[in-house]
């Protein structure tokens, strides 16, 4: 566990950053590429701990990966050509790897066991296992959690299912199983969540249909290997967008950012707070990409409701930080999903920002934030990521506007999604 002295931005942040590859899209590219006919080529894959967990799991089943310069090549396999792994598959810290693979692995001709780190082993897995079992999968969990055993299975049937919580991970797990089922599936989500899987299946010539909130999946896992260029991760860009707005004397230009509308809810919320974010050089292929620029601005408080959450689910910690600097009250409701992320983010965001003098109140399903507050760190102030990458990076941005010295415990957690985060911070610190 590493501690790190966080820096203050005395003269703002200036410059251009190229945002590293999207984590969600990287996982999906590796997983679907593993079963495509031909060689899938992936450029700008995110090289982070979570994506490594996905690659290692598939490699352990016999999928071949070859990395050359900046391209990852995958030689796709038929399910029947895979072999049983010699040991349990380690999901590390990655909820996406675990839940998506549970769907993908629900019709394998051999057993697999999934294990994970302490945080992942506390996260709910029954939300995926229960509907997958209805389809015929044989999955044993440990009191609803990892370790999980997925038993050999040769039959899946389609499902008609309404997700009780809006979750792209659960939706995707069911889509991956539905592609291997014998009958058609209808998967309905209460609020539309990130649609990267649906877009990637289209790029692999195996489209699914959408009618309003329902995804219709017909059987068949015949995927054509594509060439994928992973866009920059909007969730990583979010740290710089909010930094740009709240750090005085700042001007940032963010290149290559994925702006899929199911992911960019934070932009809309910041606009409601009064922000202007400039979008340039839009390119639309399978996933839309653009450059974003932002300068320091005064924001005002807003009210956030449940329908706003899925499009900004990973960015709420940054929204709370922005609200600590906004004029007036910000109230966030309907965010109870944050309690089952890498940490209970309602608790960790509140505890850690209040150590710096913020006025954040924890609600059962969100936050009440009074702004603006001057953040300060009396000598010896330690904050902690609690092992959660997004909490660590949010605190590093908070420290930029904090008087005094902030020390971050468990700073290495950022490696889960953004290993070059601190190097990028150095690039733009004036
Ligand atoms: C993800 C979906 C979201 C998000 C996670 C990545 C995905 O989780 O929080 O970081 O890649 O599908 P939920 O589906 O649990 O909301």
TrEMBL record:
Record EC number: 2.5.1.19
Binding site for phosphoenolpyruvate: 23, 95, 123, 169, 345, 390
Residues where 3-phosphoshikimate binds: 23-24, 28, 167, 169, 314, 341
Gene3D superfamilies documented for this protein: Enolpyruvate transferase domain
Keywords: Amino-acid biosynthesis, Aromatic amino acid biosynthesis, Cytoplasm, Transferase
Assembly description: Monomer.
Protein name as annotated: 3-phosphoshikimate 1-carboxyvinyltransferase
Organism per entry: Weissella soli
């Amino acid at each position: 566990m590493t501690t790190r002295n966080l820096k203050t931005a005395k003269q703002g942040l200036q410059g251009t950053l190229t945002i590293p590859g999207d984590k969600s899209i990287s996982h999906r590219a590796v997983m679907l590429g593993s079963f495509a006919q031909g060689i899938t080529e992936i450029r700008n894959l995110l090289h982070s701990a979570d994506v490594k967990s996905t690659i290692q799991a598939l490699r352990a089943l016999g999928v071949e990966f070859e990395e050359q310069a900046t391209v990852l090549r995958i030689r796709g396999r038929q399910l029947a050509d895979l072999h049983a792994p010699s040991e349990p598959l380690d999901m590390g810290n990655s909820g996406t790897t675990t839940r998506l693979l549970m769907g993908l692995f629900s019709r394998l001709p051999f057993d697999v066991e999934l294990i994970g780190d302490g945080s992942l082993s506390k996260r709910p897995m029954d939300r995926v296992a229960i509907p997958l079992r209805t389809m015929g999968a044989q999955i044993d969990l440990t009191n609803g959690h990892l370790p999980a055993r997925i038993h050999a299975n040769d039959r899946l049937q389609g499902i008609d299912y309404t997700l009780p919580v809006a979750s792209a991970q659960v939706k995707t797990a069911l889509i991956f199983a539905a592609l291997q089922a014998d009958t058609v599936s209808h998967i309905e989500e209460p609020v539309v969540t990130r649609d990267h899987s649906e877009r990637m299946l289209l790029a692999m010539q195996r489209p699914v249909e959408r009618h309003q909130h329902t995804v219709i999946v017909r059987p068949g896992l015949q995927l054509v290997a594509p060439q994928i260029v992973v866009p920059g991760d909007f969730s990583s860009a979010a740290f710089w967008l909010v930094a740009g707005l709240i750090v005085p004397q700042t001007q940032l230009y963010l290149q290559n950012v994925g702006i899929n509308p199911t992911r960019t809810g934070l932009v809309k919320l910041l606009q409601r707070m009064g922000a202007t974010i400039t979008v340039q050089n839009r390119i639309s292929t399978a996933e839309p990409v653009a450059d974003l620029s932002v300068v320091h601005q005064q924001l005002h408080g807003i009210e956030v409701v449940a329908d706003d959450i899925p499009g900004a689910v990973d960015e709420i910690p940054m929204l709370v930080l922005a609200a600590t600097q906004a004029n007036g009250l910000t109230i966030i409701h309907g965010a109870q999903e944050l309690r089952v992320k890498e940490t209970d983010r309602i608790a960790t965001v509140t505890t850690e920002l209040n150590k710096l003098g913020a006025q954040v109140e924890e609600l059962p399903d969100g936050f009440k934030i009074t702004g603006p507050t001057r953040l300060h760190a009396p000598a010896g102030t330690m904050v902690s990521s609690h092992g959660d990458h997004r909490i660590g990076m949010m605190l590093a941005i908070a420290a930029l506007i904090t008087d005094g010295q902030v020390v971050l415990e468990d700073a290495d957690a950022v490696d889960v999604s953004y290993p070059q985060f601190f190097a990028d911070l150095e690039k733009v610190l004036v």
